[in-house]
Amino acid sequence: MLSKALLRLGASAARHPWRVIAAWLVAAMLAVLAAVAFGGRNADAMTAPGLDSQRAAELIERAGTGQEGMTAQVVVTPLDGAATFFDHDGARTALTRLQTEVKRLPHVLGTSDPAGALDAGGDTAVRGDTAVRGGLVSADGRIAVVRVQYPDQSRLSAEDLDALVDLGDRLRAELPLRIEMGGSLFYAFSDPDGGASELIGLLAAAAILFLAFGSLVAVALPIGMAVFGLTVGVATMTVLAGVTDVPTFAPVLGSMVGLGVGIDYALFVLARHREYLARGLDPREAAGRAVATAGRPVVFAGGTVVVSILGLAVANVPFMTVGGVAVSIVVLIMVVASVTLLPAFLGAAGPRLARAGRIGRIGRALQTRKPGRPARRRDQAAGTAHAAGWRRWIGHVSRHPVPYAVGAAGLLLTATLPVLGLRVGLPDDGSLPHSRTERRAYDLVAEGFGPGTNGPLVIAADPTGDPGVLDRLVATVAADPGIASVAPAHIDRATGIATLVVFPTTGPQDKATADTIARLRTDVLPAAIGHGPARAHVGGAAASLSDVGRRTSQRLPVFVAAVLAMSFLLLMLVFRSVLVPLKAVLLNLLSIGAAYGIMVAVFQWGWGGALIGLEATVPIVSFIPMFLFAILFGLSMDYEVFLLSRVREEYLRTGDNGTAIVEGVSRTARIITSAALIMVAVFLSFAVAEDPSSKMFGLGLATAIFIDATVVRMVLVPATMTLLGRTNWWLPKWLDRMLPGGPVGTDDTDAESTGEAPRPRLIDR
């Protein structure tokens, strides 16, 4: 049985702690070395099979136009506010020098030539018209754009971005120009701002652990385990990036979820370990029994998280599937660390964990101290006082289940209402703070050329068998009301494939841009091509992201149904009940829906956005709702498993549903709230990052966990379980015979690990 295997594993690790710790050190070093030797860099392939934008990308790649590679843009304006590039020779000379220096950078395939366009005619009017029509200089002559073409990302590195940034820093001091930069090169190789967030999250977790346990040793062990696991997990993710494209958000999300679940899992095992120490057990035996009892819910909870995240595969969006696999690896490593490395730490710590540290004893003594009482008895009294407070609260809720159930459910449903206005998209450089050069470049381009210039579309056409189709395409596309301009077509001589760069009238985040893309595909392009053999597809970053957003929205109901079904079956196996997993599924849906609603209110409506450094409203990133559902559903199940495992134990011990609810919830409430506070602190530390996607992940996860650990676990769960009574544990007899294993806390192994006499199952037929 699982509990017996965990008992042996935990006890063995506690008896030989230094061997296990050394093995983890070796594993961490090997993982880091493998990441250095074989790892790759994260890349965002925001495409999926069968999408129109993917077909456009395939045509562009066949044509070899270079537009499939990375790009950057250098946006400049004279420092003299009255000067323009049309009439200021010094500014134009500086622009020429800047173009020349950028062309000399390593791996640069070429640049646009605004200075050459300015010099193409004989007088100012002609020169200005030529430059403006090429989209290189704004109509007022104040802003010029040098577009820089690089090869594909596999041939580049962060050194290419550093070279461009260093050149800009040097030229700012030498030229009479304001120089700003942006483009996909920055998106791919800018260092993520998750390092500071991870440190803030760890410090916050340490503070909460100290308040919970009052011991520096108890603080160090969960954090040390989480750091070990995160090191191995992120290094493994880097190795995976050498094999396939791992999205850039995966390391940040993996760190966020890994720290949260790692410290949480360690907290539950550590709390049970201290219970056994308080009973007078030897530290090594206590560690083994703690892993056997708390470790089993850890395994099931971690399995639920992994199952939920791997369910992303049903979306059929490769970068989401790979990102889910990467995050799942981190969660699995944290589960393994919780049942191997942590008991080794507990065995090495010995009896020091049986008492609080000096500062912790002072704090607890202020609450419960009586003269002459030993330190261990004072600690036990403090824990009993906390449990008594929760017992009174849960008893109060259980005596008034209807108003609490209705009120809490109504509150969560109200918070869910903003979801009706959910709009997906992708925050671009316009969502970054003004301190970033990418944001300043974005604003200059929008000011000089219109908002659509920041999100150009690329129409790839294969005119095979219809030589006149290109002229019709240019004319019909240019006539569309959502298109501001069409750049001259580029035709590849070898393949005959043509590419048109098209600039919408609206920005890449605007719903109108998505409408324009849809209209081009359904009306404009078919009208130009007719029924001939030629074909054309709309691509570019804006189109790709719009397509991915539409596909994820279409697949979300299927994904939700798959995750709910898998989680229901897993919980039914764990608790041998039909109504307990059904209730868990419904309550978790409420907390996740409320988190979605709060995200819409903050990011789309701007409510409280300044508190997390959000400078402008943005749409919800297209893939985040699906990712959040997977992660949040799994994490919510963590608390469900931990709480109901204890309720189940009490039910089997007493046979009384009401007593089991009050005792089970009150005994786990302090640990669950501490664990939730740790997760909320870790996730909120990412909500203050500069990147809007990190903000969304951080705020969404923190909000859902807070709601789940307070409103759901401490109000809705006891209220609904009280209303259901003994039917909580109802399971048809025929179904019980079909299910393998037994519920948590019902077999001899569990009894052996807890030191209690085994009791028969009390499942209503």
TrEMBL record:
<feature type="region of interest" description="Disordered">
    <location>
        <begin position="742"/>
        <end position="765"/>
    </location>
</feature>
<feature type="transmembrane region" description="Helical">
    <location>
        <begin position="402"/>
        <end position="426"/>
    </location>
</feature>
<feature type="transmembrane region" description="Helical">
    <location>
        <begin position="226"/>
        <end position="243"/>
    </location>
</feature>
<feature type="transmembrane region" description="Helical">
    <location>
        <begin position="587"/>
        <end position="608"/>
    </location>
</feature>
<dbReference type="Pfam" id="PF03176">
    <property type="entry name" value="MMPL"/>
</dbReference>
<feature type="domain" description="Membrane transport protein MMPL">
    <location>
        <begin position="499"/>
        <end position="731"/>
    </location>
</feature>
<feature type="transmembrane region" description="Helical">
    <location>
        <begin position="249"/>
        <end position="271"/>
    </location>
</feature>
<dbReference type="InterPro" id="IPR004869">
    <property type="entry name" value="MMPL_dom"/>
</dbReference>
<dbReference type="InterPro" id="IPR050545">
    <property type="entry name" value="Mycobact_MmpL"/>
</dbReference>
<protein>
    <submittedName>
        <fullName>MMPL family transporter</fullName>
    </submittedName>
</protein>
<feature type="transmembrane region" description="Helical">
    <location>
        <begin position="556"/>
        <end position="575"/>
    </location>
</feature>
<feature type="transmembrane region" description="Helical">
    <location>
        <begin position="671"/>
        <end position="689"/>
    </location>
</feature>
<feature type="transmembrane region" description="Helical">
    <location>
        <begin position="21"/>
        <end position="40"/>
    </location>
</feature>
<feature type="transmembrane region" description="Helical">
    <location>
        <begin position="325"/>
        <end position="349"/>
    </location>
</feature>
<keyword id="KW-0472">Membrane</keyword>
<feature type="domain" description="Membrane transport protein MMPL">
    <location>
        <begin position="46"/>
        <end position="403"/>
    </location>
</feature>
<keyword id="KW-1003">Cell membrane</keyword>
<keyword id="KW-1133">Transmembrane helix</keyword>
<feature type="transmembrane region" description="Helical">
    <location>
        <begin position="298"/>
        <end position="319"/>
    </location>
</feature>
<keyword id="KW-0812">Transmembrane</keyword>
<feature type="transmembrane region" description="Helical">
    <location>
        <begin position="199"/>
        <end position="219"/>
    </location>
</feature>
<feature type="transmembrane region" description="Helical">
    <location>
        <begin position="620"/>
        <end position="644"/>
    </location>
</feature>
<feature type="transmembrane region" description="Helical">
    <location>
        <begin position="701"/>
        <end position="724"/>
    </location>
</feature>
